[in-house]
Amino acid sequence: MIWVLGLASLLLALTVAPAMPALADDPTIRVPETRLQLVVKQAHIFHDRDWLGSGEVAIHATVLECVSPEPHGVLPCTWGSQDVPDRPYASAGRMFSFSADSGDDVPLNAIVATPKGGIPAKNSSDPEDATFLVSPGRRYAVAFLGLEGDGAGWEQFGVRWDTFVPYLLIDMDYMGTAEMLIDEGNNWGIGSHSLLGSKDYGADFSIDFEIRQPDLPDLTPLHAIPRRLDDGRYVICASAVNRGEAAAGPFSMMLYLDRATIGTYDVVGLAPSEFVDHCFLIDDPTFGTKESATRVVVNPVTGPGGERALGESDFANNIQDETFPAFRALTGQAPAASTAPGIITDPGPAGGTTGPIDLRPTAIRVRGSDASGNNDCDPGANTVTVEVQNRGSAAVGSFTVRLAVDSNPAGEVTVDGLQAGQERQAIFNGVSLKKGSHELTARVDSKSGVAETDEDNNRLRKEIDCKSGG
What we know:
Largest sheet: 5 strands, antiparallel
Number of strands: 26
CATH class of the largest domain: Mainly Beta
CATH superfamily of the largest domain: C2 domain
Order of helices and strands: HEEEHEEEEEEEEEEEEEEEEEEEEEEE
Number of helices: 2
Strand content: 35-45%
CATH architecture of the largest domain: Sandwich
Oligomer: single chain
Radius of gyration: 28 Å
Helix content: under 10%
């Protein structure tokens, strides 16, 4: 009956994962995580453990979070399935099953993805599920365990996942375990690796794999700006930008006002460097008469296990808080109704005087002379575009924008003016860039000619890499 217990233990562990706190109820939680991919390239079989015919091999691959540096079973650390019940069962897991003879190289070329319940071979095929999360200050074990059976198929179930130790079922041979630890200190193990499956009497297999950081979207809020409609009502216009290297699929943008949920806007998707705006109607007739706190959340947590609609390279920048000072007097008059209100100028402060100005660079884009898209840096002449936003509630006249490459001046352009809440482009043509990595720095109001409410957000840096050319 031991094989029955082994199978039941595996299926229960993979389908009944411990529940996590409902993070969706508290949007203040920020998790500075990094998404990685574990790609298994091939297995080499030194000994198929079968004297007649080919061996029926199963290699169980997993990524487990360590909660203690003490070894546990065949793993080099104690991981969190027992000690930290409010975390998922495994960061990533998959089973590879194949027939092989001694001396065979078996190509696998598959991603070890986030488990979705059931046997590890049944991973989700969604692109964002093809990654797993790692967090600073934590350590993870990447482990591979090999088993060989005689065709009955029990080698697919013969591993106890809490210790990653195999069950010795009928007609099954243990082929060894290969493992390595990854953390910030070794750059999460990013790169190619080959590990030997070790056991007491020699190795039966080796595994070749790669840990990589794939191109993913990175969504972040840009601003939340109050505006007045022509019927006297107010809206808060929020925006989000994709700062990542890959297009973003559908996601949501949420607005909170003084900790109350105002609304959710569904975005169909964003290309790299593309941004979207949406204005949320504020029903409170006293809005603007007192200080208000807003929060914009993009791609929010949607499930008790910390699930989100979209995978990103960084979840730490999905929240932005804004505080609005009182900008109008309480009149006691309700705003008039309108069937088709249109957005007009931003509200000024009480008394009708000019409102504050706040300039900020929001994006830097590079286009090479032979490239058709953005962020295509070429050695030689490039066009650099700096997006500038006025986050204040008053228009600004002309101001300058300066660009530097690796701290060396690369040009300065004049922007004629910018209305409240709007963005404009400062374009630098013919920026010479050599092959290799560079740091671009944009500074708005570079001559300090504009009085702003915040002078500390006028600078933006971007790392680029000109890979092509000579």
